[in-house]
Amino acid sequence: MQAASLSDVKKELDQLSPKAVKELCLRLAKYKKENKELLTYLLFEAGNEQGYIRGIQEEMDEAFAGINRGSLYYAAKNLRKILRLANKYIKYSGNKQTEVEVLMYYCLKVMQSGLPVRNSTALANLYQRQLDKIAKAISKLHEDLQYDYEQELAPLLSFL
């Protein structure tokens, strides 16, 4: 079975009653955790973006507290896991400002973690890719925000 295009889905949804659309949304939420998480964001979190960001940061704090520092290999795995979680939440928001704030917080936590990022090529590359993503997202923001975020980005750039 081939999936219909987005425009076809939109046309079909326009023809359905609100009750039928509601039933479809609930059915979608049942089958995949990611759909349920996105629906939760759209219904409960989208109106309070700063609260959403704070929630992500708190979850990242807990994850950073649990990093296995015994081995650089496991520390890198934990950092990638935290980054996957952060990217998932960024994808739900779709807001460039949220992306910048969450990724900057991630880089700040990596700096504060005490892990030897400079001594590990894998960790250094991971950190550098996030800095590149932050710079790209900043370039798409309003000029005033760009200046503010570039000031916050400067100490993160000097870490490597």
Question: What would you note in describing this structure?
Answer:
- The protein contains eight helices and no strands.
- The protein has a domain at 48-157.
- It starts with 5 loop residues before the first helix and ends with a helix.
- It has helices at 6-15, 18-31, 33-45, 49-65, 72-93, 96-112, 121-138, 143-157.
- 79% of the residues lie in helices and 0% in strands.
- The longest helix is centred in the middle third of the chain and has 22 residues, at 72-93.
- With 160 residues, it is mostly helical.
- The mean pLDDT is 92.
What gyration radius follows from the Cα positions, in whole Å? 19 Å
- Profile the largest sheet: none
| Discrete helix count | 8
Low-confidence sequence ranges: none
Question: What is the end-to-end distance?
Answer: 49 Å
Instruction: Estimate the helix proportion, in percent.
Output: over 70%
Amount of beta strand = under 5%
> Quick one: overall form?
globular
Structural class: mainly alpha
Mean pLDDT: 92
- Total strand count, please? 0
- One letter per element, helices H and strands E, the order comes to HHHHHHHH
